[in-house]
Amino acid sequence: MISEMPALTDYDALERFCLEKAAESGEVETESDRDLRLSRELDERRQRGIKAMWNYRIRISGLPSEFEFPRTKWEEVPGTEKMIDACSAYIKTMQECIKRGAGILIIGKTPGTGKTRTISRVGFELLKSGYSVIFITSEVLSEELSTESFEEIPYRNELIENLCKVDFLIIDDFGNGAYTARGLSRLKQIIDRRWLAKKGIGITGNWESFSEMQKGVKDDRIFSRLNDNAFTATNNSNSDMRLK
Predict the structure, then answer these.
(1) What is the mean pLDDT of residues 216-233?
(2) How far is Cα 81 from Cα 63, in angstroms, rounded to an integer?
(3) Where are the domains of the chain?
(4) How many CB atoms within 10 Å of residue 170?
(5) What was the pLDDT predicted at 5?
């Protein structure tokens, strides 16, 4: 720091002196203040970019954004313990689960007991760890696969490829929706290709037992593929939390 005003002919020293005096009075930021400000601005931009990318990944995954953060009231409902334990075990060992193509089957007859919310938590944790996820309801999937004009719409063939290749596929309310014969054939193709490629599928369904699910699926091969190498749990709660 220059304590005394330099000679008027020493232009460089005079400039530094004036800048220092201006900084002392708050008129001009110092070099260190400028570096700190730029660092903060870069950090804010980086955080905004990370948030924007995260929101984009949620949007293209189809995961319900309202389920991003857990709600403890479902965990306090009697009968949901096995469901929560199965999904927690999957999350804790997700790297190994993804490697061996493990899936998750959650069933329970009563709606509103947290099946969709709990399996969505698995999806969000996988996204955070860099894996790709697609969430789709069985009803929407049946409409997409069963439409008469399926072959004429290019994006639907792309949809099948995405459903086959994504790291983890979640089909919610499996068994809902009206599949045509062609639609069911396309569903089998997706499940077969994922099973052969060791890619897991997460399933929720409103069945009381797995034997009831097997009858409801109406195709032993589909049931066998989904059940193979999967974390399974029955949600025995009979309390619809959405009504409370």
Answers:
(1) 87
(2) 23
(3) 11-58, 64-243
(4) 27
(5) 54
